[in-house]
Amino acid sequence: MPVADYAAYRTMLDRARAGKFAYPAVNVTSPTTANAVLRGLAESGSDGIIQVSTGGGAFASGTAVKDMALGAISIAEHVHRVADRYPIHVALHTDHCQADKLDAFVMPLVEETERRRKTGLPNLFSSHMFDGSALPLQDNLDIAVKLRERLNRSDLILEIEAGVVGGEEDGVRASAAARLYTTPEDTLEVARRLNAIPGPPYLLAATFGNVHGVYKPGHVKLKPSILKDCQDAVTRACGGAAQFYFVFHGGSGSELRDIHEALEYGVVKMNVDTDMQYAFTRAVAHHCFQHYDGVLRVDGEVGDKKAYDPRSYLAAAEQAMADRVKRAAVELRSAGTAMVHA
Ligand SMILES: [Zn+2]
Q1: Shortest CA distance to 73 belongs to which of 61, 85, 59, 90?
Q2: What own/partner pairs with CB < 8 Å and gap ≥ 24 does 117-124 have?
Q3: Which of 292, 294, 311 is CA-nearest to residue 303?
Q4: Partner of 164 for a Cys bridge, out of 178, 201, 316, 331, CB 3.0 to 4.6 A?
Q5: How far is the CA of 277 from the centre of ligand 1 (A)?
Q6: pTM score, two decimals?
Q7: What pLDDT is stored for residue 176 in this prediction?
């Protein structure tokens, strides 16, 4: 299928919330990792979301160029080219973008979509995240409101964050003192400000103890019931139509029962990065250990071209990451839910 257009994406989000499942939203940094997501989604009969972070975009543009927007465009164009070879819908999203990076990352991508629409081309990305969680809530929402107005004009969906996800992602580390739990009062304020602008639903990364990265058991205390408290509060104040579309950040390494509880309360997208990174690299390491004297020229020998051709271990890594995507689709109950038409 082609990359999900606005109508298909909205249908995806509504189906997930009504059906109490969520889409794997997988960070990619190259054509190979993007292909792994498409393959994993296709093999599990799940629609899903491919996303690019600021660091992922910079990497994808080339280590000598390091242009986060350029790399994100390159990955998105690749996905637009190949997506219709897979029988599922995929949306394209950009991950965490702090206020000081908006001008270097999200805005050039929005402008690219605006340019494309003028010539009749589909949007480049389907949605963008603005992460103002490090700012006071009103400052966060002032920027979010402006961005939502701009994105609405091009059928782009906004994701924002209220509360702080712990851990580290792309070198941005949340402080130990950061509030790891969003409050219903905060999310009511989000609803009040963002619902004042008519438009499509927005995605809300509310935090309930989640952290980026994977930690040993016992270090992370997830409280998915916070999401229920927030939904209950917004339903009481604004009615059922105002219920949130939640995003579960830092999904890697989470207990299945916490994931399933979160799905009950309106999580429609779960970001998985770390577990995918591990699956990919695990396959590369396996290849190198298995073919030690093939990938290396040991003791004057010549190695084995078949073993050190990057395609050999990257194909294994693509398959391994696709398998991890399939597991995520089962855990998030999106497996087998792919839309036939949209
Ligand atoms: Zn995140």
Answers
A1: 61
A2: 117/154, 122/2, 122/3, 122/5, 122/80, 123/5, 123/6, 123/154, 123/155, 123/156, 124/73, 124/76, 124/77, 124/80, 124/92
A3: 294
A4: 178
A5: 15
A6: 0.94
A7: 47
Please give the pLDDT value at position 179: 64
- Ligand 1 centroid from CA 295, angstroms: 35
| d(CA 83, ligand 1 centre) in Å | 24
> What confidence score (pLDDT) does residue 174 get?
58
Query: What is the Å distance from ligand 1's center to 305 Cα?
Result: 39
Catalytic residue among 95, 155, 186, 273: 95
Under 8 Å between Cβ of 131 and 141: no
Report whether 130 contacts 160 (CB < 8 A).
yes
> How many angstroms is it from 242 CA to the middle of ligand 1?
23
Residue with tokens 């949605």: 127
DSSP category for residue 83:
G
CA distances from 292 to 11, 156, 280, 306 (A): 49, 48, 18, 12
Q: Annotated catalytic, 293?
A: no
